[in-house]
Amino acid sequence: MSQPTETVTSTVGDVSKNSTSVDPLQDTEMFPQTDGAPVEPASKDLEGVTDSYKAPNGANGQPKRQKKIAVLTSGGDSAGMNAAVRAVVRQGIARGCQTYIIREGWEGLVRGNNTEPTPAATAATSPALGPTKSVSFSALPPSQQLSLSSGALDAEDGSFPHGVNYTDPDWIAPLSDAPLSFGYGELLKDGAGEGDIEELSAHGAMGLAIADKEDEKGRSLKGRYIVRVGWDDVRGWLGEGGTLIGSSRCPSFRTREGRMKAAQNLIKYGIDCLAVCGGDGSLTGADMLRGEWPGLVQELYENGQIDDEQKEAHAHLNIVGLVGSIDNDMSMTDLTIGALTALHRICESIDSISSTASSHSRAFVIEVMGRHCGWLALLAGIATGADFIFIPESPPKSDDWETEMCDLLKSHRVVGKRKSIVIVAEGALDRNLKPIKPDYVKQILVDRLGLDTRVTTLGHTQRGGKPCAYDRILPILQGVQAVQALLDATPETPSYMIGIQENKITKVPLLEAVAQTQAVAAAIENKEFDKAMSYRDSEFREMLQAFQISSSLAASNHVPDNKRLRIGMIHVGAPAGGMNAATRQAVRFCHNRGHTPVAIYNGFEGLLDDNVSELSWLRVDTWTTRGGSELGTNRTLPSHDLGQVAAAFQRHNIDALLVIGGFEAFHSVLLLEQARKAYPALQIPMIHLPATLSNNVPLTDFSLGSDTSLNALVDACDAIKQSASASRNRVFVVETQGGMSGYIATLGGLAVGAVLIYTPEDGISLKLLQQDVEFLQKRYTLDVKGKSEGRLVIKSEKSSHIYTTETLTKIFKEEGKEIFDARSASLGHTLQGGVPSPLDRTRAARLSLRCMQFLEEHAVPNAQHLKGKRHYSIDTACMIAIRGSKVVYANMDEVLKVTDMKLRRGTDEWWADIKRLAEVMGGRSGLMASSSRG
Ligand SMILES: Nc1ncnc2c1ncn2[C@@H]1O[C@H](COP(=O)(O)OP(=O)(O)OP(=O)(O)O)[C@@H](O)[C@H]1O
Ligand SMILES: O=P(O)(O)OC[C@H]1O[C@](O)(CO)[C@@H](O)[C@@H]1O
Ligand SMILES: [Mg+2]
């Protein structure tokens, strides 16, 4: 990973100069100053913080400072920010740090705390431990309190796989050593902000009633922006939309004076590590604060606002960025926290609009968010099968885009399409940088095509609502790595931004990511659109290509007649979300290139019955949104009758084969490849596109359908947890599908905050059950009486033959005694999901396009007439796989090497370590860790 260059530094420098002029519309002052008073001189008194922890001694016998980590959310809110805050807080505590939240983004940091906490608020609650337990970290070896190396850093490209080493028992700080709650969590969750209990009380009984609701102990957040939090303060936050700690656009932080106040407040509270979750602007601000830090500290010292000790202790500030923004506009990461949830909201809306559009044969012009980035519009276009999109990075090709658009929509109408959907990104531009606005687009459609057209602006509905599964998992994985990056930071290391590339959590220098993001905007401003696209990640470019191919009916891309292929498409195994979207993209590719898409219905059984036909462009139009399998699928393998399968390929002149499905689909390609020698008709290129909710296909990190399934699980578990919480003291054992793979249980468990997860990989033993019961008893005992949270235990269906879901539930019920109760729920086939998730739809389109390109590259036309004259190497019978940060084609030999054919799963499941992480985040590891080791 290259370090930021000087040019990059000067780019950022320019931004800071320009940014002193604040756009009043962008940065509305949200919070009137409460007293207008300047921030008081910093004192070392840790106002409102009760734990008088004994810092352990360092090597020289002097007390060591315990790390203090604060987290804030800034810029436009996005779903998943709460999960990020929860992850930073819990991971920070698990690593022996003190944790703080900063309310209202940079604004809160500039303001600091103007009020003292009420006496009640100073009492940290940890019922079993007494109200103000001192935190004794002397029990921990010193190495655990400061920089712990992940050991998993991939030196090659500066990124690391998912793991901090969760399996190391010494890694985790005992949870019982720290106060579980400081009491503010519930207030924040209930939406309390600047309430003023005294003032409300002055308004009589009504006021009191409201005040009572805010906090029965008289706690208030008024004037308090830097708030100490404990483990339980962030409980129940995973499923909440927006950001519970508040966000803002803060004009004063754009000024040095504002950042000076922020620095003073950080020092005042002894905070030396800061995690910032926000968009490009917020992270630019973070980078500026870190860059200016030495100067700010010096100035505070010279002004007498901090003393020698503080100056020395705060010579460096460690900052890490988590990218939270629905726009997905940050460079050097594939996805930002919240972008996928916004895509969920958009797809829900456009799916609904589509049915009414079709009923009335109407056109709809839909505006989606994205000030400078077309990701939402592009992905929504693919996921919903829209006809035309406008995005800032890639404006329509011609200056006369009106004609370009009308021609395309007309071509769709000519083949019989009843509806027309045009998606316009908020920041859409033409090639001359003139904004393209929905009303104008509508007028064109009415005037030129005579279409009955409506405009819908989705607005802030896109930013709201509960996070999808991925926007819970991603912020947890990234939040954990953010804490790691903070603990690993030295004065010499740059500030990092935690990102993701395909399925690999990465850390990249913040400065570089910010500079590249700004370079996209600059390229657009300079009308260098190719350059702007080149700065977006490769996924973005492939998605655009997939969209263009799927919506164009032009013959201009047709290959010459003698290169045209008949490409077979078949579904094998159980249905999975995204199978139909993948097939649609494959069919559209064929039409775009002049090939013939040949559908094989009902799997290999159907092939033997000659249940085969060609698919038209229009026939697959609505398939993006359809769950299940439109072709029909079953588990029959070609080995059922290999000879007849080969004969059928010959009869139908199949030149190449796309196989979409799970483990059986992989097995089918393997069998077909192995039979190539015996049957010349099988001498065709073939590719497997993994699709199964179990995600048990070896080698690939993800199969289509697994995201849909996780979302179905999350929805169900949210409802179950609500019931469990309402009934108090209740544990729910939730059974998931997944065959011999614990993927759904593990990732689902992480996403819903399950306290225990059982998988076939790890199995269940009596000893484990005893420990788990002990943990549950401990955990419920620590809850504030009458306020117990419902807790979830996720059990994969094949975790144990003996300890079935029913048995487990009975054991928990019996052993819970008066402390907790137990119930069970089995999710069964609901996990196949209804409507496929946007991630599965778009991933399907992208991977399917790659598969078709692979087949086109390797196939020869009229394969069946060249019997015996062709010999394909094993490299032409492949699986397309997402592997770490890459999409790869792996031949059957390569796949076999990492396959356990008996257990029908991979031998190197990338997520194995995530179960340990889920145990950390659910509290089991910390609570069961001994505080007496040393
Ligand atoms: N150049 C800058 N210098 C200092 N602070 C900045 C700078 N740019 C932004 N900030 C701070 O970050 C805040 C949020 O920035 P912005 O409004 O650009 O949103 P964002 O973080 O990009 O998120 P999103 O675009 O997703 O809404 C600003 O109000 C300001 O306080
Ligand atoms: O909520 P606000 O402050 O009006 O900001 C809206 C903007 O924020 C975003 O949602 C995120 O940057 C943009 O897509 C949108 O233009
Ligand atoms: Mg932004």
From TrEMBL:
EC number: 2.7.1.11
Domain Phosphofructokinase: 68-115, 225-486, 566-855
Transmembrane segments: none
Positions with a binding annotation for Mg(2+): 280
Organism from which the protein derives: Naematelia encephala
Descriptive protein name: ATP-dependent 6-phosphofructokinase
Entry similarity comment: Belongs to the phosphofructokinase type A (PFKA) family. ATP-dependent PFK group I subfamily. Eukaryotic two domain clade 'E' sub-subfamily. Belongs to the phosphofructokinase type A (PFKA) family. ATP-dependent PFK group I subfamily. Eukaryotic two domain clade "E" sub-subfamily.
Region (C-terminal regulatory PFK domain 2): 566-934
UniProt xrefs under SUPFAM superfamilies: Phosphofructokinase
Amino-acid positions noted as binding substrate in the UniProt annotation, renumbered to this chain: 325-327, 362, 369-371, 426, 454, 460-463
